[in-house]
Amino acid sequence: MIKIIAYSAARSDTDRFFPFLNSLKKQKKVNLSVVASYIHYIDTFGGTIRHLNKYFNVENRKFKTNTLKDSPNQLAKNLANEIIYLSDLLKKKKPHILILMGDRYEILAPAAATIPFNIPIVHIYGGAVTLGAIDELIRHAVSKISHLHLTAHDKYSNRLVKMGEERWRIKTVGIPGITNLRMQKNITIENLRKEIFLDLRLKTLLVTLHPTTVNFKSIDKEIDNLLNALKKIKFQIIFTYPNSDLGHQKIIKKIKDFCQKNRRCVFIKNASISLYANFLKRSCAMVGNSSSGIVEAASFKLPVVNIGIRQDGKVKPKNVINTNFEEKKILKAIKKASSQKFKDSIKNLKNPYEKKVDLQKITNFLLKSCKNSKILHKRFID
Questions:
Q1: β-strand 148-151 against 320-323: which pairing, if any?
Q2: Which residues sit opposite 123 in a β-bridge?
Q3: Is residue 37 within 8 Å of residue 9, measured between CB atoms?
Q4: Hey, which bits of the chain come out as E strands?
Q5: How far is the C-alpha of 166 from the C-alpha of 164, rounded, in Å?
Q6: Ordered structural domains, the chain, with CATH
Q7: pLDDT (tens digit, 9 = 90+) per residue, 277-334?
Q8: What is the Cβ-side half-sphere exposure of residue 281, based on CA atoms within 13 angstroms?
Q9: Nearest CA-CA partner of 30 in 6, 7, 2, 5
Q10: Which of 63, 130, 155, 166 is the most buried (most CB within 10 A)?
């Protein structure tokens, strides 16, 4: 029996690779368990551990708090505590393979904890670039620690080769969860209204803003300019919660204040896959700096206003309009994105991240490669 532990830093990463994890779970010779980061247990972000528990065997954890202090000092301490927890878990469970999903800073902890145990690490989503987030540093560090790579795009695979990784260790798989998201059933207008108290037959923006963590001191100005621009547009607005990056509390507070003064908006803490898919299907545009605008929105032919530098460096489909945090430029970009002319221009768009993949072949690649006698002996290729 091959014991595999998959570490989930955030729900979004798990959803994107859910079909792959589900394929692994169905293998007769595989015992798959999931370790959820502390973020999953925090009420501020929707207590997403409940979602994971529905589908996977999740390791039980206990925490003294369900809140997250928004400071660099606390972030560093959280990572240190995570390493301590994971080192004990790895000693106890003795897995044959560790899978790290995504590129958030939380995955540095399991990567570091695993090094002394000589356990092969499979990194999903390496080789990408996000110049506006500290995840950029973490992602590449984890790639060098890892032994196998499942990437979202050929460009990202080639970047790993340039970083010295051997080609046989890399496979481009796209993001399997996009198709799962796109195939979600439609929720009726009436049921959506009961769920979020908005009539999505009216023009609606889907807005997500995360902190720009390479310069989180600029957060106040960024969120203020975005909200000032949104005041001048009479569309309904679905806000979704920011992630746990430094500065998230300021964003949450300002959006809550905005929604209290504007009945045409709602602030969603944790949307189900089905609900989020219907937001993507029925909104007239997505606004903010979420990776979902880069990765998933193209599969729904949804125009995206990508603001700021957080997603700089990623391969962007043609439904994405880039702008900065100047109020006038945000307004101009939203008007362009919500126009019929722009929507017509992307009606035949194909999402570069949504690929037809054979999940069994990906699973076989992982299991076969991890049995390779050379798996732990990495060479740097010049």
A1: unpaired
A2: 100, 149
A3: yes
A4: 2-8, 30-36, 97-101, 121-124, 148-151, 170-172, 204-208, 236-240, 265-268, 285-288, 304-307, 320-323
A5: 7
A6: 2-176+357-370 (3.40.50.2000), 184-345 (3.40.50.2000)
A7: 999 999 999 999 999 999 999 999 999 999 999 999 899 999 999 999 999 999 999 9
A8: 16
A9: 2
A10: 130
